[in-house]
TrEMBL record:
Topology versus the membrane: Peripheral membrane protein
Biological process terms in GO annotation: protein transport; retrograde transport, endosome to Golgi
One Pfam family in the UniProt entry: Vps35
Localization per record: Cytoplasm; Endosome membrane; Golgi apparatus, trans-Golgi network membrane; Prevacuolar compartment membrane
UniProt function note: Plays a role in vesicular protein sorting.
UniProt GO cellular component terms: cytosol; endosome membrane; Golgi apparatus; retromer, cargo-selective complex
UniProt keyword annotations, A-Z: Cytoplasm, Endosome, Golgi apparatus, Membrane, Protein transport, Transport
Protein name: Vacuolar protein sorting-associated protein 35
UniProt record similarity statement: Belongs to the VPS35 family.
InterPro entries named in the record: ARM-type_fold (IPR016024), Vps35 (IPR005378), Vps35_C (IPR042491)
Lineage summary: Eukaryota, Viridiplantae, Streptophyta, Embryophyta, Tracheophyta
Major location category of this protein: cytoplasm
Amino acid sequence: MIADGAGEDEEKWLAAGAAAFKQNAFYMQRAIDSNNLKDALKYSAQMLSELRTSKLSPHKYYDLYMRAFDELRKLEIFFMEETRRGCSVIELYELVQHAGNILPRLYLLCTAGSVYIKTKEAPAKEILKDLVEMCRGIQHPLRGLFLRSYLAQISRDKLPDIGSEYEGDADTVTDAVEFVLLNFTEMNKLWVRMQHQGPARDKEKREKERSELRDLVGKNLHVLSQLEGVDLDMYRDTVLPRVLEQIVNCRDEIAQYYLMDCIIQVFPDEYHLQTLDVLLGACPQLQPSVDIMTVLSRLMERLSSYAALNTEVLPYFLQVEAFSKLNNAIGKVIEAQEDMPILSAVTLYSSLLKFTLHVHPDRLDYADQVLGSCIKQLSGKGKIHDTRATKELVTLLSAPLEKYNDVVIALKLTNYPLVLDYLDSENKRVMATVIIRSIMKNKTIIATAEKVEALLELIKGLINDLDEPQGLEVVDEDDFEEEQNSVARLIHMLYSDDPEEMFKIISVLKNHFLTGGPKRLKFTIPPLVVSALKLIRRLPEEGDNPFGKEASVSATKIFQFLNQIIEALPSAPSPDLAFRLYLQCAEAANKCDEEPIAYEFFTQAYILYEEEISDSKAQVTALQLIIGTLQRMHVFGVENRDTLTHKATGYSAKLLKKPDQCRAVYACSHLFWLQDQETIQDGERVLRCLKRALKIANSAQQMTSAARGSTGSVTLFIEILNKYLYFYEKGIPQVTVESVESMIQLIKNEESLTSDPSAESFFASTLRFMEFQKQKGGVVGDKYEQIKV
């Protein structure tokens, strides 16, 4: 036998034991070959004595055990041959009990018992009962565990099960179950006792060793699940109560967690469904440190998969009230474990919600009940700051969106926003983004103001920062812009065919956006303005509307609404954006023949230009927009149009750079001649603008010459020539052939023309255009024929 000296290395112990084992195994095999039963028993007992060591770790001991197992299989075959040669199996069964040490004796007894059962000279149940009782003689945890594992291994195909060749009387299944349960109980006790042997400092090491041995115990439950005679009644009345009793009574964290998981994994889903109350009743009785969260989550996952694969069993879930039992069990578990982390509680309800959505997708009240139970557990805890818990809470809230692919259904869950409130600001933004992505992906239209209000409450993490004024400071600028752009895209999914309801929707949006902080307005106001303008186009003409301006939704009311929301932009500050939106609204008012409203929008745009737009480049761009928009306006009377036009030309002359002044002034010429409106055809003022532009161009060239010592570019002159040609072709009397020829001659006389390739090319293109127009013939061709180049 291996020496138990404390100072020797474990590898040496194993090597020495393996050497002694191999030597005795050799002599045993020689005795078997010579049919010498006495020597075979002698050397097998000496060989098995090596398993009496206490100095090997479970991993090393397993190595030695497997060697013994292989040799014992040979011995079992030899015993069987001996019985065929006339040796009495009863005498053999008694003979092996003469071994001196109890551990070898019991290994040999189990081996002989296996042969005894095969011969069928005695009922299998009697022999198995004797063996399982005799094994009580080994109470050392490690040695006893492996001995009983050997017993379980050799007996698994010899149990008196229904349909087995060893089947006995009417109670045969009970006998088989009783044997396995008894062996399981004793093995679990030995396994648990391993935890309490040795010093406290080795606790982690022992837990690791025990985890390596857990399958030895769990195999008993697998054997039970494979017995043909273990039907639902037997499982419910005998197997499950006995196993749960052992699990609860052992009071060991590792054993309780592993064995509960074993029950869930090895027994049929149908059995779990029919015995839910019994299985769940044991959960609150487990040790507080047991990871019951994982156990229950796996149970619900299995039941969900069972329902998904077998839709015909869905009525049984309602019949056995599976949801109610699971919900109550989770509540009791959390109540029993007062120190349960928030993560575990949230994970349990997340798993329950997924179970509910898969098994009872039509029962929104169940889903809402889960959320309500979750709120009950979270109440009084404030915002959740545990990273993993908040991530799990986001998973819980995302489940209904993933299942139904419809935010409208989630909006029906009254407890949904209440759960959302427990997230911190960062995770509220994450959840809001998830909701918006779901809407965009599934093209979900939110068609009522009430639902829009509820939706905005869910995504308030993206549209409001008043509660946490410091919140935006920690948000990456790129992330912030991406989030706000997603909100902007969302606005186009909030739509109703009913104009009155649509106006309510955009009013709700306005109320939320205007209180969302100035930084967001430049993202959210433009799409809101676009939605309002779309609504105006859908309204009936006032002549077709019996209520006219007194209607609940009219163009006038919407324009008033637009004015209110755009007013907020300059304080954002986004004056450029507000300026553009005012002009856009003015053009919309023009199409509705609302002169006072259009004039007011233009006035606001002019005020912004004067007070807020100071950058020279921005002024040039803004002035181009003013001129382009004003040119398209037909609603203004003479007085209003003259006022606005005069302002625009005044702004043009005040630009910082002379070239910009020149281009803005000749652009203003288009404000005085509209081909399709006879009331706006003032050739004198067109010519005045062109001459003023030419004067400014001359001034710009002189300034360039004085500053740089060279003549400036003639590009401005060529641009003015093109304007002359445009108005000449339109037939304005004041723009004569002589004025065009004069411009051409002026450009030709410029010394800088040949020194500027781009200007020279521009002028050549203009001349080619004139030649092309001549070749067209007709009225246009005749006009260009008169021009002498």
